[in-house]
């Protein structure tokens, strides 16, 4: 009997230890087994749909809620992961602004009542929200490039104005900033404690929602920063093309892409029927309703859990929303197949990618300026960059999406530098067109910098076809 009791006790203890071990691995409190040079023996996390956790067929409501990106628990991320003998040299962050009020309203309906003041005891909440408001109120004399100096530093309207950042949008980027602080500052010491203004590069378009999103992320990243060290540059173009924006061939690609979108809409009889039903509800011509882009307003209702609008003729409902959202998803799928958007993206994204590799190359020379670059932008900024990089399966940029380029130095081979690309915390380096095969030849969990440089300097033009070998020629080639 004693032997049997001991055996049962040992068996129970073994089961307990196994459970604890698995739990620790699940929560990443101890490392899972790795291969040589620190590469995980498990498959790298993918940006492809996960058949275990995602619906078996495309669910428009599920996709829309992912787009809303409603703040909840802190997310796990892969930023900053590298073998111990690699040193982080610089980080380049591209963000989409956070949740905003719609840019369009559904005609003849009441605007959704969303409060754009920042209130600490209202959801969603962030521990730094009150401190953020306090710090922004001290920045009225901050020096930004015109016309940014005329914009409010945080949202502050009881009823949101069109396109205004919401409290949700601020919290999304406070979370982004804190996450990046924990990784890049606390863990990797990217910036010294006495960091200087020239170690940051900050750029935003001239919309209040992008400036405020950039400031929210920056405050999460560098709490109570010195206003004298902060300078946001103004970017007039959503493509961040600076002095290289004139590109006739890019515009021709865009015109053909817009024509493709139009023809796809014409073929969708269910979509046309849905627009007709909604137009009768709000008592406007179908053409006027379609031009008002109702999906933008409907997404706001969904993201903020506000009922869709009603009139005396009936209510806009979830079935209407599903049809329009499903068409959006189908449009994105066809866009990938037809490749017209890829041509637009390669030319649209080239200037900002060229700037980025220029900063990386200067950092490899030991220069300590612009170690952290932040571009606060739009969906129409991130989407072309994702497409140009070959990340065709990446989801359309959600609110507060982040795309990050990390530059690393191998301490064992100081002349060798590598890059990692991360999208919303997922390592997508080996999904890019310039590095999708490299991991088959190398055990390192990142891509040689020269691969990215070669892609931007040469391969982007090769992918366009023709004989162009530089950006100007590709933008002006005849006979396209």
TrEMBL record:
One of its GO terms (cellular component) is Golgi membrane. It holds the Pfam family His_Phos_2. The keyword Membrane applies. It is found in: Golgi apparatus membrane. InterPro entries: His_Pase_clade-2, His_PPase_superfam, Histidine_acid_phosphatase. The keyword Transmembrane applies. GO terms for molecular function: phosphatase activity. Responsible for the 2-O-dephosphorylation of xylose in the glycosaminoglycan-protein linkage region of proteoglycans thereby regulating the amount of mature glycosaminoglycan (GAG) chains. Sulfated glycosaminoglycans (GAGs), including heparan sulfate and chondroitin sulfate, are synthesized on the so-called common GAG-protein linkage region (GlcUAbeta1-3Galbeta1-3Galbeta1-4Xylbeta1-O-Ser) of core proteins, which is formed by the stepwise addition of monosaccharide residues by the respective specific glycosyltransferases. Belongs to the histidine acid phosphatase family. This is 2-phosphoxylose phosphatase 1. It comes from Papio anubis (Olive baboon).
């Amino acid at each position: 009997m004693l032997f049997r009791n001991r055996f049962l006790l040992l068996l129970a203890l073994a089961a307990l230890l196994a459970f604890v071990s698995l739990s620790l691995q699940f929560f990443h409190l101890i490392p899972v087994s790795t291969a040589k040079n620190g590469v995980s023996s498990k498959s790298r996390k993918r940006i492809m749909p996960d058949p275990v956790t995602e619906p078996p067929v495309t669910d428009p409501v599920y996709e829309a809620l992912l787009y809303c990106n409603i703040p909840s628990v802190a997310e796990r991320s892969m930023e900053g992961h590298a073998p111990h003998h690699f040193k982080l040299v610089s980080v380049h962050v591209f963000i989409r602004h956070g949740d905003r009020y719609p840019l369009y309203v559904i005609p003849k309906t009441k605007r959704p009542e969303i409060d754009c003041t920042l209130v600490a005891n209202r959801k969603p909440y962030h521990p730094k929200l009150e401190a953020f408001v306090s710090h922004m109120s001290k920045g009225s004399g901050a020096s930004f490039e015109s016309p940014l100096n005329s914009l409010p530093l945080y949202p502050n309207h009881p009823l949101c104005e069109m396109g205004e950042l919401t409290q949700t949008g601020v919290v999304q980027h406070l979370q982004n900033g804190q996450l990046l602080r924990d990784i890049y500052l606390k863990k990797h010491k990217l910036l010294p404690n006495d960091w200087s203004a020239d170690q940051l590069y900050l750029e935003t378009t001239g919309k209040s929602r992008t400036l405020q999103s950039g400031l929210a992320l920056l405050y999460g990243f560098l709490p109570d920063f010195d206003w004298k060290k902060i300078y946001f540059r103004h970017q007039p173009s959503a493509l961040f093309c600076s002095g290289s924006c004139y590109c006739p061939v890019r515009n021709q690609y865009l015109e053909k892409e817009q024509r493709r979108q139009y023809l796809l809409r014409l073929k969708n009889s269910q979509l046309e029927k849905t627009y007709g039903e909604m137009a009768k509800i709000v008592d406007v011509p179908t053409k006027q309703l379609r031009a008002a882009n109702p999906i933008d307003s409907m997404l706001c209702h969904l993201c903020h859990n506000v009922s869709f609008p009603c009139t005396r003729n009936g209510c806009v409902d979830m079935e209407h929303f599903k049809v329009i959202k499903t068409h959006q998803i189908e449009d994105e799928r066809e866009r990938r197949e037809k490749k017209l958007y890829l041509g637009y993206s390669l030319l649209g994204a080239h200037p900002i990618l060229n700037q980025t590799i220029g900063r990386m190359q200067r950092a490899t020379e030991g220069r300590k300026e612009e170690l952290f670059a932040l571009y606060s932008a739009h969906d129409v900024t991130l989407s072309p960059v994702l497409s140009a990089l070959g990340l065709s399966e990446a989801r359309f940029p959600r609110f507060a999406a982040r795309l990050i380029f990390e530059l690393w130095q191998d301490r064992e081979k100081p002349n060798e530098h590598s890059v990692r690309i991360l999208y919303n915390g997922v390592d997508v380096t080996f999904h890019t067109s310039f590095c999708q095969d490299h991991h088959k030849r190398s055990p390192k969990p990142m891509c040689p910098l020269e691969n990215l440089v070669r892609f931007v300097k040469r391969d982007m033009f090769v992918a366009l076809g023709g004989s162009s070998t530089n950006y100007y020629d590709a933008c002006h080639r005849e006979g396209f």
